[in-house]
Design a protein that fits this description.
- The structure holds two protein chains of two kinds.
- The radius of gyration of chain A is 23 Å and the shape is globular.
- Chain A folds into two domains: 2-223, Rossmann fold, CATH 3.40.50; 228-287, Alpha-Beta Plaits (2-Layer Sandwich), CATH 3.30.70.
- Chain A is built from eleven helices and 14 strands.
- By secondary structure, chain A is an alpha/beta fold.
- By secondary structure, chain B is mainly alpha-helical.
- Chain B contains eleven helices and no strands.
- Chain B has helices at residues 3-23, 25-28, 30-51, 59-89, 93-97, 103-129, 140-164, 170-184, 197-203, 207-220, 227-251.
- Chain B is globular, with a radius of gyration of 19 Å.
- At the A-B interface, α2 and α3 of A face α1 and α5 of B.
């Protein structure tokens, strides 16, 4: 079953801006899908149309088979939305906000209270349930929006940059929570600027730029398109200059840290052997975390400099 | 439409609306009680005895229904316009827009909130009026139905204002430049029979005149307007504004891009 099917979705705003140029996207039930794109790419417009906050110009959107044109209420009943901007009453308490949202979805009052308690506790908000929402910190406000979106236990949870402006610790706890929700068969669609977030959470990824989907694949498949992987090596001793080794691009980040680009046709064993020969001892090694970011930037840049529609995206990625 | 789900949504909106204005009763219920008390003191007690009787009643008795109606009109309108615009401004109207609630339920919820505030204020102001004069209800059915219809009508007006308002100034322009003149010139403080023929005809274009006179008929049994004509006009306005409100909501005007 498809949780979400989007076909030929177009949106032209009143000022003439063409935000979406006919996108197609499918999300299977149970997926954890990332929707990536730079600012103004069309991510929030897409989400706005799915949740009926934005009117589409053309195209179809089906949520668990329900067309938003003909069965809007049924389609809406499957969705829980965590928007990008804080959008709850600043004067109501956290508990009231979540319970009211349950009411809007037709959840019986006693059940709405049960669900509110469950999610406010899980998200660390229960102690502050009676505080006016305006007194919550930025991170707690974001978590409150997640609790609110889950109160009717939706089958499709849509999060529009849920961890924007959230500190690392809180972000990771939210990731853990989202993984747990997804493991309970809730389909999740996530837009994010944090590419590490997409890499950590999602199996599949769609990249949107200038109103078009320019890549729609699994993260594994996308990363396999990289010819080069970058590693950070922590050294025992210190160096003044990076060692010169044929076939490897090596930079000295500081006196005891190297950054090494290793192409897929070279082995890491060989690299260690050559380093040992130069009496350089490696204490530890890690992947540079922004692999996906590099790939994303290249995809978006390539899309901007596109010379012809026939040019394969994979070729462009491998052209480095 | 899922009936039970819609009912729960309606009940939630109404509870939220009533809780909102009751939480800030010092801003929503008390001010009309104070300003209407001042009207009774100044026009009823100080100036009234010099004016003498009007329509066979003391002046304070004559203006009491109009003053109560004025409070109901202002409160119903203010409740919906401020609540709906506030929800738009803080974007929490999106909580309802993303939920599977039929638009007429959203509209009905807000209108009910406005009606409840209008009725609460109406009861409070009536209590204030009883300090200054005696009121004997002539026709309870007419009085009750006019109060209800007036509160519905001005709640709808407030809703439309809230939908199209884009800044806080916009929610005070209509009350200041339209609602207040219509109310003051709607026969609250005088009988239109005191006016020259031309101005009587002009006054008949004012919908507030029909509400004030119907309400006055329900309490005192006197009216400048035929009561059936008044009811027909009020109902016509309600139908027109309800249709307009539902239309703008269905089109997402002022709410969706």
């Amino acid at each position: 079953m498809k949780a979400l099917e989007i076909h030929g979705l177009r949106k032209t705003y009143a000022n003439g801006l063409e935000a979406l140029k006919g996108i197609d996207l499918e999300v299977n039930e149970g997926d954890f899908r990332a929707l990536l794109g730079p600012n103004g790419a069309g991510k929030s417009t897409t989400i706005g149309i799915i949740t009926s906050l934005v009117t589409k110009t053309a195209g179809t959107v089906l949520v668990f088979g329900k067309d938003i044109d003909t069965e809007l209420e049924a389609a809406k009943s499957y969705i829980g939305l965590v928007p990008q901007e804080i959008n709850f009453s600043q004067f109501e308490s956290s508990l009231q906000i979540v319970v009211n949202q349950g009411g809007y979805y037709g959840v019986e009052k006693h059940l709405a209270y049960q669900h509110a308690e469950k999610y406010l506790k899980k998200l660390g908000l229960w102690e502050k349930r009676d505080h006016p929402s305006r007194t919550l910190s930025g991170g707690l406000k974001r978590r409150l929006m997640i609790a609110r979106a889950l109160v009717h236990e939706p089958k499709l949870l849509i999060l529009d940059e849920p961890t924007a402006g959230v500190d690392v610790e809180l972000r990771r706890s939210m990731w853990q929570f989202l993984k747990e929700i997804n493991s309970q068969e809730t389909t999740i669609v996530l837009t994010t600027h944090y590419l590490e977030e997409a890499e950590s959470l999602c199996k599949d990824i769609a990249i949107i730029d200038k109103g078009e989907i320019i890549e729609d694949t699994s993260i594994k498949q996308l990363l396999s398109q990289l010819n080069i992987e970058t590693f950070i090596l922590d050294l025992r001793g210190s160096l003044r200059n990076p060692p010169a080794i044929d076939g490897y691009r090596i930079q000295l980040l500081d006196e005891s840290t190297l950054e090494v680009d290793v192409s897929k046709d070279r082995s890491i064993n060989e690299l260690f052997k050559l380093l040992s020969e130069k009496h350089i001892e490696v204490l530890s090694m890690r992947n540079k975390a922004n692999r996906l970011e590099e790939l994303f930037l290249r995809l978006v840049e390539n899309d901007s400099n596109r010379v012809g529609p026939e040019e394969s995206k994979a070729e462009k990625i491998n052209a480095r | 439409m899922h009936v039970r789900r819609s009912y729960i949504a309606y009940r939630t909106i109404v509870t939220k609306e009533v809780t909102r204005f009751m939480r800030i009763w010092v801003q929503t219920v008390l001010p009309p009680a104070i300003s209407m008390a001042l009207y009774f003191v100044i026009f009823g007690q100080l100036i009234g005895p010099r004016i003498g009787n009007m329509g066979g009643f003391t002046y304070v008795q004559y203006i009491a229904p109009g003053i109560i109606m004025m409070a109901i009109i202002n409160s119903s309108y203010a409740n919906v316009v401020s609540s709906f615009f506030g929800a738009k401004f803080q974007k929490h109207i999106e909580e309802m827009l993303v939920a599977p609630i039929p638009n007429f339920i959203i509209l009905a919820g807000y209108i009910t909130g406005g009606v409840v505030r209008g009725l609460v204020v109406g009861v409070v102001v009536t209590g204030v009026a009883l300090f200054f004069t005696q009121l004997h209800i002539t026709n309870f059915l007419v009085m009750g139905s006019v109060v209800l219809m007036t509160a519905i009508l001005f709640s709808l007006g407030g809703f439309l204002n809230g939908v199209f308002a884009t800044k806080f100034d916009d929610i005070s322009i209509i009350p200041t430049f339209v609602l207040t003149p219509l109310t003051y010139l709607g026969g609250v403080f005088y009988s239109i029979t005191l006016l020259p023929e031309f101005w009587q005809t002009v006054s008949r274009a004012n919908p507030v005149l029909y509400m004030v006179n119907s309400f006055r008929y329900g309490i005192l049994g006197v009216s400048d307007i035929n009561i059936f004509t008044a009811f027909a006009i009020i109902i016509l306005f309600i139908v027109a504004l309800f249709a307009a409100s539902l239309y703008v909501l269905n089109r997402g005007m002022g709410l969706k891009t």
